[in-house]
Amino acid sequence: MRILANDGISKTGKEMLEAAGYTVDTEHRPQDQLAQAINDGGYEILLVRSATKVDNILMDACPGLKMVGRGGVGLDNVDKYHAKNNGIIVFNTPEASSRSVAELVIGSMFTLSRSLHDSARNLTQDDFGKLKKKYSNGIELRGKSIGIIGFGRIGQELASYAIAMGMDVFAVDLEDKEVIIPIEIYNKVIEVPVMVRKNFDVVRYCDFVSVHIPKQPNGDSAITYGDIELMKDGVIIINTSRGGVVNEDDLLDALETGKVAAAALDVFEDEPKPNPALLNHPKIFATPHIGAATVEAQYRIGTEIADIITAVYGTK
Known about the structure:
Helix 1 (11-19) packs parallel to helix 12 (295-313) and helix 5 (98-113) packs across helix 8 (153-164). 35% of the residues lie in helices and 21% in strands. It has 2 domains: 2-94 and 295-313, NAD(P)-binding Rossmann-like Domain (Rossmann fold), CATH 3.40.50.720; 98-286, Rossmann fold (3-Layer(aba) Sandwich). The model has no long low-confidence stretch (mean pLDDT 95). By secondary structure, the protein is of the alpha/beta class.
């Protein structure tokens, strides 16, 4: 079988598939040339990340397509319902990047709590002493509280880091329940219970709020100004889930009023060309959708993809 990894795959994943008898092509094709490339190349399996869109039009144009795999969490760029109706297998790799995304959130929290992004940007352009005074009001993370909206794999991984750092964790999800979070320290595992609430009010007093939920089915933002108003004055918001889950205009308004002290965004509504007002805002730490972009996550994604494909179609 022939595989087109249009958004790439790790070297290890490619080698595993080739060793199992598959042909793997990693040359990227632009969206408007993708259907022809799939048909001309006889590709039966299409692998994507976030850049490539696999909609009903592409699937209908590629009758030989049997499987679509997305490396990462979510399937926002894949029409899984149309695929199911047409007998095309769809999968993703939700576990492989959880740790990497959680660590980006932690890094963002450290960055914003000490204004590292803004001070680094201004250090070569402004007076050293003036900047030292300007950035002398940082905060420590130990003893602070974090609200985690969406308590799946990434949310729980984030909780393990936050608890180990001495933060209080408040979790929000679809139902009230207790989740045991394993904390591994020096090869010992400590189990810490976290109460998950479906009531959004639990984040009312949190110093940080990190969002880990999918887009709404109708495309609307899940977190709007009314939700932000319920949060603590001076809250710091982090969104590494999907662009637009936190309404970008409402976030900008809340930053201007001071309701939100700062924000970190790894995802944007208009990728790959985000709103310049977000990128240039001194209170926003922006990254180009790199949540899963670590060597370790890419290795795990590649090997998980190879395992899934060989489990379905076997080895040659």
